[in-house]
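Aim 2, interim progress: modelling of the alpha-D-galactopyranose-bound target.
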Amino acid sequence: MKTPFSRMLYGGDYNPNQWPREVWEEDMRLFQKAGINSATVNVFSWAKLQPNEGTYDFSELDDVIDMLGRENYDIVLATSTGAMPAWLVKNYPEVARVDFEGRRHKFGQRHNHCPNSAVYQKFAGKLVEELARRYGKNPHIACWHINNEYNTGCYCENCEKAFRIWLQKKYGTLEAVNAAWNTEFWGHTFHEWDEIVAPSSLSDGMGFGWTRKTAFAGISIDYDRFLSDSLLENYKMERDIIRRYDPDTPITTNLMGTYKGLDYFKWAKEMDIVSWDNYPAYNTPWSETAMRHDLMRGLKGQPFMLMEQTPSQQNWQAYNSLKRPGQMRAQSWQTVAHGADTIQFFQLRRSKGACEKFHGAVISHSGSGETRVFRECAQLGAELQALGDQLLGAGNPAEVGVLFDWDNYWALEYTSGPSVDLKYCAQIHQYYRYFYEKHIPVDMIPVDADFSRYKAIVAPVLYMVKESVAEALEAFVEAGGTLITGFMSGIVDQSDNVHLGGYPGPLRKLCGVWAEEIDALAPEQSNTLRFAGGGESKCGLLCDILHLEGAQAIASYGGDFYAGTPAVTRNNCGKGVAYYVGTQPDQDGLAKILDQFAQDGGLAPLIQEETPLEVVRRVKDGTEFWFILNLTGQPQPAPENFRGETDVLTGEAVGGQLKPFDALLVKR
Ligand code: GLA
Ligand code: ZN
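Predicted structure of the complex, ligand included:
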């Protein structure tokens, strides 16, 4: 495990450029009181740094960086390319993106550029070069932060042209493109490259937002891949410029967890360290947040930065509830537990105007260091400081790998049928939650991971099985691994064309089943799972009608015309076992299946006791760091396992009870 930092960065987005100088001095005083040692600056300052095409003005940023340097901050320096200045859009309207509805945007908002605009690239590159030349040798720069939350697509003519070149590289010939996209359907055969257009809603795209559909998933998935690559090229351009002036400071950009638009596994290969922004809603299950942390750790298999979280509340969700007393602290320790080596906020001082003025910050509109939120930030700051560098770079050993794949995410949610309720992340999360509740650590891994590092692989809705993935899973099971997959798996190839010969296609032999038909159940409909070993639970959403081809049924359907046929199966294959879950069980039903799976896999929970507390372990140089978190909102008994040991955060012995949002750290 690697960490590029010498201490845990504690700070966040800081915008002194929005404030008069007197406020800067007050900031320095208050931040010190809160134990803040890091500031992320220059995230959205392009318009100030470059008031027009020919002029740069770094005087204010110089002052900010000098001040932070004098106070020994670890500076996270952003490049400001996430929001274009108005003059750039006025002088070169083509730099603005064209949205899915086909509308060319005017100046406004942020994250608004066309990634394939040569004009955007030129001006962004020049700005970054100025920044890198000026600050690249500054010893207080701890990390470069490129752009901000890369997102949103573009469907302009420039992008269309770039898409055709991307396709030529990928497929070589137009015949290969036609074959991949199955263009005989609806007479889409392309005879010239320039007949291909971007699949916006003016073309093959349908619907709206992230729930949108498409007439040709092959085209739309390739376009998603292309957009992800296009933005990644923007990132790489900035990174390479910085590297010319600064050979070793880590470079990152802030990601967004399970954000759909970008293939983060591909992105992470180009990043020195992963960083991400964690904004759960008031009702997001804690297991879902944990899953996102594990995914962000899994991108590089290394500790990550928490680039943003709110100290108190957001402004952009429907209901921006306050974090309850202790909740920010507990949430921060949860983040560290899952692999974070930094805790950073958006933001340090609450803005005075514009749409984020109700977004929480370390310093509120009162300007006071005597608020509940400030005190809680200061407490956490002191705890992080006391811990020093002990945890930096610590790993999170796991025996279970849960597959996550952006191609699958796109493809599964583009499919028209069998059910609109099929949601990729929800499918993955229900499996993740089981392991979370059982205190069995999990790695979130890509489909091309080295499976041999795990005892068990969890692969729900592995709808798209790309080249060599089935073979790798087979080799894993043959060698003694335990695999679980299920409905909507093994269905299509990388272009969304069906693997012919019966579902689950290339997984059919491994799972020892053939799914002849797939029934879709509406929310008000359900079926029953009858377990061979006794017991029943409800199931729904989809029901595969299965034939055993070597597997054994561990549960069968209780109702409908397929009553008595297998629903969940287990297949011995080589030295290992493959499970196939042909329907959506309720939570208890799934737990029952996964109990057996965990037993087959020989998966050891971190602690045996049943407890609703979250228990997570990081390990460094033989020292184990155990986090015990009460995220339940209710008092809970402390696990016997830790009683009497010292909680290093408070120096007190672990007692009999944890209060709501208590967070303990025990070293062994
Ligand atoms: C994102 C952005 C920040 C800010 C926060 C508000 O994460 O990166 O600039 O807008 O959201 O939650
Ligand atoms: Zn474009």
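The chain has four domains: 9-154+227-387, 157-221, 400-601, 614-667. Residues 148-149, 277, 279, 308, 314, 316, 346, 356, 359 surround alpha-D-galactopyranose (ligand 1) (CB under 6 Å).
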